[in-house]
Amino acid sequence: MSGTPAKTSGTGAPPAEPRPATAPPPNGPLPAAEFPAAGARALLAPDPGRAAAEVARLVAEAVAGADSRFTLVISGGRGPRPLFRMLAEEQPVPLPWERVHVFWADERCVPPDHPESNAGRARDLLLDRVTLPAGNVHRIHGEDPPERAAAAYRAELARFFRAELPAFDLVLLGLGADGHTCSLFPGSRAIESPRAAEAAVAPEGVRDRVTLTPAALRGAAAVVFLVTGGDKAPAVVRALEGEGTPSELPSRAVRPAGGEPLWVLDRDAASGLRGVRWSPRAAPGRSR
After folding, report:
1. Do 98 and 133 contact (CB within 8 A), yes or no?
2. Buried b (16+ CB within 10 A) or exposed e, 45-56
3. By the 8 A CB rule, do 41 and 5 touch?
4. Whole-angstrom Cα distance, residue 270 to residue 265?
5. Are strands 276-278 and 208-212 parallel, antiparallel or unpaired?
6. Is the C or the N end of the chain the one with fewer CB within 10 Å?
7. Under a CB-based contact definition with an 8 Å cutoff, are residues 74 and 170 in contact?
8. DSSP 3-state assignment of 249?
């Protein structure tokens, strides 16, 4: 997949000297930065719309380049909403959605018509607006008790992939202001689970969740984090430049077999990173 980061030399190197991120030309390549401590690479966008557009481009290229079926994992929260709209409405050539199978990184334990449902939001913004066969949608049944829903999701993954752990083609993740990804919150027992999906508990909001585990993401060909907004900046610093265990920094537990995760950040989300400084000449837009 174009944009997938190359391997780095190790995970213990000190942060690189800050490099200026200049404003990219419209539709041109985004400036990049390496984060050896996290084993990750980031693309730096001037605003949330440009960040979402870059991830939409990566998704479109990956789907269009697939020879047969393509497995895509999507997430909830506010971050993916512009991305979903772009995938549904702004593709110059219609994507072959009939070959795409959609899975979820996590789900709140609510019915699919509930406003907090990740599946319901994705359905409204994307899935019902493209030619995706109903049999290609593999949602987590959040209307069920969390342990039962997690067991059913594990069974569905095992049936589809014919293995206890899946091997997704592309996983799209976000990052919470508290550092969680999927519904893997700091200190969650699910981070160490050998199984593909587990029940989880959030510290606030809809507390009962079901989440994929790092074990389920290990076989992925590519993982992309889309993170925008200044409220995420401290969490981005901890994830990419901080020190801590995967239990303390759940995104560090995401180690896909296909290479290091790629982070796509807007200016505000990247504003606290020591390894990046924004050039005054670039004057990237602020997130709205």
Report:
1. yes
2. bbbbbbbbbbbb
3. yes
4. 6
5. unpaired
6. C
7. no
8. coil
Query: Using CA atoms, how far apart are residues 18 and 21, in angstroms rounded to an integer?
Result: 9
Average the pLDDT over 141-164 and give the result. 98
Q: How far apart are CA 53 and CA 49, in angstroms?
A: 6
Residue partners of 270: CB distance under 8 A and separation at least 6: 21, 42, 44, 233, 236, 276
- At 21, give phi and psi (nearest 5°): -100, 110
3 or 85, higher pLDDT: 85
- CA-CA distance, 35 to 3, in Å (whole number)? 15
Q: How many CA atoms are closer than 13 Å to the CA of 272, on its beta-carbon side? A: 16
Nearest of 92, 253, 257, 70 to residue 175 by alpha carbon: 253
**If you average pLDDT over residues 35-43, what whole number do you get?**
93
181: tokens are: 């990804």
Whether residue 235 contacts residue 176, with contact meaning beta carbons closer than 8 Å, is answered with yes
Helix (H, G, I), strand (E, B) or coil at 171: strand
Tokens of 178: 């508290």
Q: pLDDT (tens digit, 9 = 90+) per residue, 43-65?
A: 999 999 999 999 999 999 999 99
Tokens 């000449």 sit on residue: 281
Report the C-alpha gap between 230 and 288 in whole angstroms: 10
pLDDT attached to residue 78: 82
Pairing verdict, β 32-35 and 40-45: antiparallel
List the Cα angle 194/198/199 in 5-degree steps.
150
Structure token digits, residue 274? 């020591």
What single DSSP character describes residue 14? P
